[in-house]
Design a protein that fits this description.
This protein has 4 helices and 47 strands. It has 814 residues and is mostly beta strands. It has a 28-stranded antiparallel sheet that branches. The longest helix is centred in the first third of the chain and has 25 residues.
Length: 814
């Protein structure tokens, strides 16, 4: 391990030293300079124009970066002039220079811009972004512009996003019919169990969210993990001078009071920027469930009917604190600390009626209470250096820690077919999970020429996972541990990644992006008594290519191919046991294998309309908890499984409609075809299904700063592994009043107003002894009132472009 890291470090140093030499040589034909204000502070986004000296023909244009720097490369011999302009500042006189003979390096030094005394003292610009923005590689949902998002959680917004399906039964998120979604927050991978991510998002207030990006074609600098792509939640950042921010409070009702509060604050002065946000929420929910299972053994038919009522409560605290410091005109240091505390608790009562040959046999009543408490702490150090010639070097180091505590108490009471009490039993389980990630990465980017840009990097991830599981039965006044269901599992995993990509402008209308990523993984899972339950070492190459062509000013066409991987989630590998009923359990699967996906995608954009087609093939596709019936014990086990493969085809149509100045609409239609090929009890299973996902939004601008919004989604019948899922949907209504001046905004929001969000899964394969259904009513309609307000100064400053090294580390803690 140490030898490999040392080798990687040596290669990295040599590679980047070589690139820096190239950059230095290329600087021989560069014109560069720096712009500051009168106090010496860097001025970004200053317009820089390069003209021919004799005829004043504009040759090139650029803007300054965050360090106030600009550069023009590959300038032939001749005489030139440079002009500069920036809103709020006086324009300096043009700068003339002569590059006689062969091209050489010209340093135009530092130019100080003086403020324009005649500029407006204050100006208010109100720009309304559309609710949905379709880019070539992603769909952007502008959350802060949605009325029905106010007072809701990040998970509720995702559930209503085009093509996104949240599976509450298995705690999974899929996009365009594919599992393996990677979750990012501000471009930083969460690298957490998806079950924990679902809970965290269920407690994250929309008040701190600026937008959500659904990224279907990830670039090579992101991990190859995640077959479906990335969901990036962008939190609000205030880029103004001085001290400023915003806050929001929500009061609502469903089956109980709903309370939420959030605050976002930012302080910028000189070379220092300090920022942070904090949110808190409390919500109760009622879930009802019903299930049925049927098996046959030696001519005897066994059936079980199940019903449950559950009351749950979630208290979530989520926060972050960051600091950026400009160490020099080219170098920026960033520190970021974040964390959350998500406390889920529930009380459930359920009943199982067991039949033999269609006659009542046993009645089992089970009550249980559960706590599922997740804590997370993370820290990031980021050092970014801007090189001459518009190159950039960035180093990241991240440490991420998760802790999960999940005790469950079970009280079982059994009765015979006449209702007479037979016996009682009490049991309890405990699961304590600790997960650590250490991530280090180095990224480099530089223009090789006017039309070619190079990106390259290396990354090392080391992770450790400990799952302490115990199960005890109460007997003769004592708790007795069941050793067959208790163990401590340790998983150690590391992977090394190298990538390089090129952005090439083939001509004025055609761009090509191509990249290649290599990842090598070592993974070992075992216990004190049983070593090497999982012991894998594998490496993969992941190519990606993206081609876009602008046909006219309003039409464009793009094509892409990507290869990606989904590794088994840590918590899915550990064989834990969780009792849903007396005859139904959830368990992990240490035999899970990584899944490899190949995908081809085409997009056609006509004005604001999008038409998209994609096909994919995923070998060893990992699906959520799937049923396995034991006809001898009449017990059903739900466990994550590898399918033999999954084939998919998707078509997306995005249609914005502007009726008039006060009424606009957005329709997003996603059609999917799925084919699942699996093996059950050594028999082949093939299931095909076509489904449709419709997402709609209608917005009305009313007089006197009132706004109305109606939004909803519909998901037609679809596949969930070998399960067939029936149709479901939701409809929301929002009403907003914006007060004049700085008095804030008041929003009334009604969610799931038709009470139609119900999940129904079923599988009917009697030849494989597999007949099962599970129905879940997950949420009830709720009503919320939210007040939000901005405070502080509002003098704008451009924000820093900042990424972290753990952008791909936080989603495999399933």
């Amino acid at each position: 391990m140490a030898t490999r890291i040392k080798f990687i470090t040596q290669i990295l140093i040599l590679g980047f030293a070589f690139n820096l030499i190239i950059v230095d040589l290329r600087a021989q034909s560069t014109v560069h300079g720096r712009i500051t204000d009168s106090a010496g502070n860097a001025l970004p986004a200053v317009n820089i124009l390069l003209f021919a000296y004799n005829d004043s023909v504009l040759l090139r244009a650029t803007i300054t970066n965050t360090a106030g720097e600009y550069a023009f490369t590959k300038i032939p011999a001749g005489k030139y002039q440079v002009s500069m302009s920036c809103v709020g500042y006086l324009n300096p006189p043009p700068i003339f220079f002569d590059m006689a003979g062969s091209p050489g390096q010209v340093n135009l030094d530092i130019i100080h811009l003086a403020p324009n005394p005649s500029a407006l003292k204050e100006i208010t610009v109100i720009a309304k972004k559309p609710l949905l923005e379709q880019k070539i590689d992603r769909l952007i949902i502008n959350v802060e512009n949605s009325i029905t998002s106010a007072g809701n959680t990040a998970l509720q917004i995702l559930e209503r996003s085009p093509g996104v399906v949240v599976d509450h039964q298995n705690n999974l998120i899929s996009m365009n019919g594919k599992n393996g979604v990677m979750l990012m927050i501000n471009g930083k991978m969460t690298r957490m169990p998806i079950s924990a991510a679902v809970q965290m998002l269920a407690g994250m207030s929309a008040g701190n969210i600026e937008k959500i990006e659904l990224i279907t074609t990830p670039p090579a600098n992101l991990d190859a993990e995640g077959n479906a792509g990335y969901i990036n939640i962008v939190l609000k950042e205030n880029n103004n001078y001085g001290t400023n921010g915003s806050y929001g409070v929500t009061l609502g009702y469903s089956i109980d009071l709903i309370t939420e509060a959030s605050i976002n604050i930012n302080h910028r002065k000189g070379k220092l920027n300090l920022y942070g946000d904090l949110s808190w929420s409390r919500m109760k929910n009622k879930m009802t469930a019903s299930a049925y299972n049927k098996t046959s053994l030696n001519g005897t038919i066994n059936e079980s009917f199940f019903g449950a009522d559950r009351i749950s409560k979630v208290i979530n605290i989520n926060g972050r604190l960051g600091l950026d410091f400009e160490m020099s005109k080219r170098t920026m240091l960033g520190l970021l600390f974040s964390g959350y505390d998500n406390d889920y608790s529930q009380d459930e009562s359920n009943q199982s009626s067991i039949y033999q040959d269609y006659k009542p046999d046993t009645l089992v009543k089970l009550t249980n209470d559960e706590v599922n408490h997740w804590k997370n702490y993370a820290g990031n150090i980021n050092l970014q250096h801007n090189l001459r010639g518009n190159g950039k070097l960035s180093f990241n180091f991240d440490y991420i820690y998760y802790l999960n505590d999940q005790p469950v108490n079970y009280r079982k009471r059994s009765h015979d077919n006449t209702g007479n009490f037979i016996y009682a039993s009490d049991s309890r389980s405990a699961k304590n999970t600790a997960i650590d990630f250490w991530v280090a990465g180095l990224d480099f980017s530089t223009p090789l020429s006017k039309n070619i840009n190079l990106e390259a990097g290396v990354k090392q991830t080391i992770s450790a996972f400990t799952n302490d599981i115990s199960f005890e039965n109460f007997s003769n006044g004592n708790w007795i541990k069941d050793k067959s269901m208790s163990a401590i599992y340790d998983l150690k995993e590391d992977y090394t990644a190298f990538y390089t990509s090129f952005n090439v402008s083939l001509d004025k209308k055609t761009d090509l992006k191509t990249g290649l990523r290599y990842e090598h993984t070592n993974s070992n899972l075992g216990t004190v008594d049983l070593k090497d339950i999982v012991n894998r070492h594998y490496g993969n190459l992941f190519p990606g290519i993206f081609l876009s062509h602008k046909i006219t000013e309003k039409t464009s066409l793009s094509l892409s191919y990507t290869k990606r991987i989904t590794r088994p989630a840590f918590t899915d590998l550990a064989p834990f046991r969780y009792f849903l009923t007396s005859t139904t359990i959830l368990t992990g699967n240490p035999a899970l294998q990584p899944a490899i996906n190949h995908s081809i995608k085409a997009d056609y954009v006509l004005k604001h309309f999008l038409f998209s087609l994609s096909v994919s093939h995923e070998a060893n596709a990992i699906t959520g908890f799937q049923p396995q019936s034991d006809s001898i014990s009449n017990q059903v086990s739900y466990t994550p499984q590898n399918l033999r493969n999954q084939k998919m085809a998707s078509a997306i149509i995005s249609i914005p409609v502007i009726v008039n100045h006060w009424w606009s609409m957005q329709y997003n239609l996603t059609g999917n075809w799925q084919q699942v090929n699996a093996i059950y009890e050594k028999m082949d299973i093939r299931i095909s299904q076509a489904n449709l996902n419709l997402n709609l939004n209608q917005r009305f601008t009313l007089p006197k700063n009132y706004y109305l919004e109606l939004s909803g989604f519909y998901q037609s019948p679809s596949l969930n592994g070998v399960f067939k899922r029936k149709a479901y949907g939701s409809l929301d209504l929002g009403f907003k009043k914006t007060f004049l001046g700085r008095s804030g905004t008041l929003v009334f929001n009604a969610s799931n107003i038709l009470n139609s969000y119900t999940i129904n899964n079923e599988i009917r394969l009697p030849s494989q002894n597999l007949v099962n259904y599970l129905n879940l009513k997950l949420t009830r309609r709720n009503f919320k009132l939210t007040y939000s307000k901005n405070f502080g100064k509002d003098k704008l400053k451009s924000k820093r472009t900042r990424t972290t090294g753990a952008e791909d580390e936080k989603s495999r803690v399933n």
